[in-house]
Amino acid sequence: MEKFTTHTGVGVPLRRSNVDTDQIIPAVYLKRVTRTGFEDALFAAWRGDPDFILNQPAYSLGSVLVAGPDFGTGSSREHAVWALKDYGFKVIISSRFADIFRGNSGKQGLLTAQVDPADVELLWKLLEEEPGLEMTVSLEHRTVTAADITVPFEIDDYVRWRLMEGLDDIGLSLAHEEDITAFEAKREAWRPKTLPAKHLPEVHIEAARPVG
Amino acid sequence: MGTTLAEKLWQSHLVREGEGGAPDLLYIDLHMVHEVTSPQAFDGLRLAGRKVRRPDLTIATEDHNTPTLDIDKPIADLTSRTQIDTLRANAKEFGVRIHSLGDADQGVVHVVGPQLGLTQPGMTVVCGDSHTSTHGAFGALAFGIGTSEVEHVLATQTLPLGKFKTMAINVNGTLPEGTTAKDVILAVIAKIGTGGGQGYVLEYRGDAIRALSMEARMTVCNMSIEAGARAGLIAPDDVTAEYVKGRPHAPEGEDWDAAVEYWKTLVTDDDATFDVEVTLSAPDLEPFVTWGTNPGQGLPLSAAVPNPDDFEEENDRVAAKNALAYMGLTPGTPLRDIKVDTVFLGSCTNGRIEDLRAAAAVVKGRKKSPDVRMLVVPGSARVRLEAEAEGLDKVFMDFGAEWRNAGCSMCLGMNPDQLAPQERSASTSNRNFEGRQGKGGRTHLVSPLVAAATAVRGTLSSPADLVDSNTEA
To answer: How does pLDDT run across B183-199, given as a tens digit for each residue?
Structure first.
């Protein structure tokens, strides 16, 4: 994962609350088996509307999204994070994030900066007054700067450290493999296992057919 | 001071405590895998030269993409077919057990785990699907994860997890007749909001919860994520043990006794405290439906479409206004007057045998409204077989509904089962987001009883509204 210290880019005001992951990327785009190439799927349902914020030239190259509360709710699809990253977003600012989305973002190096609701409103106004305004997000100082305004943001200390170091979670966990093996040795024997497979007898399933 | 059930589950799975702000490392007892959120995870393993650490704690099935018609033919949608073929190839390469389309144990992953007896009290259960919270109904710590975490669990059988807070949802008293688990959870979400559970593990408590069957408890826990919660759970009791007993992977003999002894310890201590407590009075609840585009925008069926101006918060006003525009609804319209085009009975929320039985009892001997199409999609192939053995397929088909094969189907419209733009559904699923069931589709979340009654009348209805309608003997 790339190290993240500071980022400067065009801010995009998205005045919506409860932007769920079905809006970020509709399910029909989840059929791909690759990890990249989702930029066309981002906000697919809204992109058809010429007034949608990303269809306005001043904002179309944005890389810092400023959204309403409860961003990323709903489905656990990490494709939402991939689509935002593939489009070019590096930072999402909101006053509240859904847990799974925030976790997925952290794994993928997308910064979720939690900002006070009043400051989100302030940033929206700045970005709307001056379309194309660049913002600077400093992970080191935990601040967002736009024009002459600087506001603080919150982020979990550990996630911040990992992002700044660009560390991969699996490698970090495998460093504790001895602990994992020790835990496995004391697990109760009656805990269920999927293998060998046990099930009721196999039965033929009739295929349903279209009606009429 | 005592501890809550959620804290006990955490402690008993702690591989390693996080130091210096690092998250704790937790052991995962069961990892369920499906075709949509796993291909990139297996790819990551291959790239790093890693193996699946515990194939014997991993199980895969095909559900999100699978068609519910003509399942014996090649899948028509090529990208869907590729994704399913990819899962099959990955399962083979990494030695993971898989239940494919046409197999009696194929179905929605959250229906399959419990029915095989793989979901048991006191476990940690994860899946790359947010509705993994379903398994919390057994007193397991169960939650949805993203694809990076799927890869992490495949490689290490652990997950680094930040601490959670605890919330008690007390539902006291007795539910009125015709009011179900689905109505309870929709009322809970409307009360605490779609972000109300963020950072919390919810524990559902109270006599109304104790009185629920295992399948109804799964419906409640399933939608915990719709309140933003990390997980939802219900302490195990005799109902839980009775459900698990005799299933293919249930413990047997001395193992059974040891397991039950352990399960008895899985309660929140009397002197434990929750960070937050929320209380609902069961006798005050009634059939609940959603009117908007998030699961928190719900009201009792007897209410009317709300006026956005009546909301106190600016965000709620804007959200309500957007929702009504999308849903094509006018403030003041009684919810019972809303005409629907499609009724969907199924999903990990309400696609189990009891759900089908409840709906079948309502439609038996009646005729479907000619203006409505109704899809019945059993949660798993096994549920379908069970329903057919009871003759429920006949009941639904005589009523005029379509009897399909198992899968996620119209809950999220990744297969051909979708709503057309502006088509309106009464759906027993879990999300009424914009475009969830098809681009431009309009979803009202309902219980199986309301779904069935709605299919009879053609407008949002509960079985109580059918008292006067004639039944054909």
So the answer is: 999 999 999 999 999 99
> Using CB atoms within 10 A of its CB, is residue A25 exposed (0-12), middle (13-18) or buried (19+)?
buried
Tell which A residues from 66 to 95 touch B, by Cβ distance under 8 Å.
Answer: 68-70, 73-79, 81
Q: How far apart are CA B180 and CA B167, in angstroms?
A: 22
* Residues in chain B within 8 Å Cβ distance of A32: 79, 83
**Closest C-alpha to A161, from A111, A86, A89:** A111
Distance from CA of A61 to the nearest CA of B (A): 25
Q: Which residue of A has its CA nearest to B430?
A: A74
Residue B472: per-residue pLDDT = 42
Which residues are CB-contacts of A172 (< 8 A; sequence separation ≥ 6)? A162, B160
Q: How far apart (Å, rounded) are the C-alpha atoms in residues B187 and B290?
A: 10
Question: CB distance A192–B30 less than 8 Å?
Answer: yes
Query: Three-state SS for A152?
Result: strand
For chains A and B, count residue pairs whose Cβ atoms are closer than 8 Å.
245
- Predicted model pTM: 0.94
Does the distance separating the beta carbons of B129 and A76 come in below 8 Å?
yes
Q: How far is residue B432's CA from residue B186's CA, in Å, rounded to a whole number?
A: 12
Chain A residues in contact with B435 (beta carbon < 8 A): 22-23, 26, 45
**Interface predicted TM-score (ipTM):** 0.93
CA–CA distance, A95 with A116 (Å, rounded to integer): 5
Q: What is the pLDDT of residues B231-273, one digit of tens each?
A: 999 999 999 999 999 999 999 999 999 999 999 999 999 999 9
- In the stretch 412-431 of chain B, residues with CB closer than 8 A to chain A read 412-414, 431
| Distance of alpha carbon B206 from alpha carbon B170, whole angstroms | 5
Rounded to the nearest integer, the mean pLDDT of chain B is 96
Query: From the CA of A133, how many Å to the nearest CA of chain B?
Result: 25
Residue with the two structure tokens 């955490």: B10
How far apart CA A72 and CA A70 sit, in angstroms, is 6
Q: What is the pLDDT along chain A (212 residues), one digit of tens a residue?
A: 789 999 999 999 999 999 999 999 999 899 999 988 999 999 999 999 999 999 999 999 999 999 999 999 999 999 999 999 999 999 999 999 999 999 999 999 999 999 999 999 999 999 999 999 999 999 999 999 999 999 999 999 999 999 999 888 998 999 999 999 999 999 999 999 999 999 888 889 999 999 87
A167 touches chain B (CB under 8 A): no
Rounded Cα distance between B452 and B346, Å, is 12
Q: Give me the mean pLDDT over the B46-54 stretch.
A: 95
Q: What is the DSSP letter of A205?
A: P
Query: CB of B439 within 8 Å of any CB in chain A?
Result: yes
Residues of B in contact with A188 (CB under 8 A): 258-259, 262
Which chain A residues touch B39 with a CB distance below 8 Å? 33
Q: How far apart are CA B378 and CA B428, in angstroms?
A: 12
Contact: A99, B198; criterion CB under 8 Å: yes
Phi-psi category of B238—alpha, beta or left, where left has phi over 0 and alpha has psi -120 to 50? alpha
